[in-house]
Amino acid sequence: MTCAVSGGADSTAMLALAAASGLTVTAVHVDHGLRPGSSDEAEVVAASARRVGAAFRSVSVTVAPGPNLEERARIARHSVLPPDTLFGHTADDQAETVLLNLLRGTGLHGLAGMRPGPRHPILGLRRSETRAICDALGLDVVDDPSNRDLRLRRNRVRYELLPLLEDIAQRDVVPLLNRTALIVRDATDHLDAAAAALDPTDARSLADAPPVLARLAVRAWLARCDELGHPPDYATIDRVLSVARGEAAATEVAGGWRVARRAGRLRLEPPR
User: Fold this and answer.
1) Is the dihedral of CA 241, 244, 250, 256 positive or negative?
2) Phi, psi of 249 (to 5 degrees)
3) Tens of pLDDT along 107-149?
4) How far apart are the first and last CA of the chain?
5) Helix or strand or coil: residue 178?
6) Closest by alpha carbon to 32, among 75, 77, 81, 71?
7) What one-character DSSP code corresponds to residue 158?
């Protein structure tokens, strides 16, 4: 079992819990090389791994400076980790993700947040609890200074937006946002199952289907065609549905691909 361990309290607590459960665990630290001294954090992770009886491995990746640094670092990190790697996201991360997706104008799937399951084994824990676990076990943790950089939107949500919401609500809103994600996830699972019965290449079926199911069918179809599995945005889906209804002959989608209608069927055509 592979645990992605940055050295922070969340991933270190996950590592300790995985080892305590009797699993054979390897802690993998990914050094993005984005700040001086980042390679030293691997030693902290290695020490924690030894302390809990886990194996350790360190991997370096290169992430060039530029826009959308967080997303590119995430892609680089995932590219060197096994597909069944465990990640130490918590309930606080889930709340932040829901709010970030909302600020991006997300649909239902974004409001559903991260899906609980084997890859997110501590999604029900709070950050205060992961810190307490590390303290109780005497495990040193890394405090990444970039986690307080307010130029990053997630940090502004964490340190500005969430405290403001809690002040307005006069309560801890993290459980509320997690409950919302659960409710929406149940709804999207039901709708996705219904949309799976639609053939997204059958123009007539799409045009006649309830709009919510037609959009979900197109979303799943185009996500399968994306190299990274990213779903299309709302505007792209609606353009494809316009083609299905015969209001347009074709439309461009991500990466220069086109969706065109021929003899009542929708076809995905590669860039010319």
Assistant:
1) positive
2) -80, -30
3) 999 999 999 999 999 999 999 999 999 999 999 999 877 788 8
4) 43
5) helix
6) 77
7) I
